[in-house]
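Hi V.,

You were right to ask for the full record rather than a summary. Here it is.
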Amino acid sequence: FSIYSEKGIGTTFTIVVPFTRAILKAQFIKVAGELIAIPIENIEHIYFLNQNMIEYIDRSMFYRVEGNLVPIIQLDQYLKLTDSNKDYLEINGHSKIAILCKKDEYDFAIFVADDILQQMDVIVKPFKSSYSNTRDILGSTITTDGTVCLILDVLNIMTYQTNENRITQYN
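Predicted structure:
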């Protein structure tokens, strides 16, 4: 904060406000009834979940994409929005959505959502809470209808899953 004043001319007040916002293009999805966003830059492809493409290895689920097995992250369970003991791969008889997300050139994962909504540019406000130390949330945004929406940090989620279940290569 600074003040500059010159007699007979006027006074200038300068306030430096830290830039804590960013704009990104986000894909809105529904997971267990909750509105969530994923940065478009992390999305490689979006599919209808085909149960015939799912394989189990050592109690872990993988999705076959172009001959490669890619680990599945069921967002409803990962975010603790549903019972983690059950695999909900259909919702009301309809197939869920499989979102192929990329961490880097070699590491991919399938994020499973209930529904796919619109894409839009959003203003991101960093999400920090003294009540939670989660690193799965990149930030939050407010939609045009006033709904607060959390934006997932896809890279951190995939990094965490790497420790749980090695993310395989996808070429």
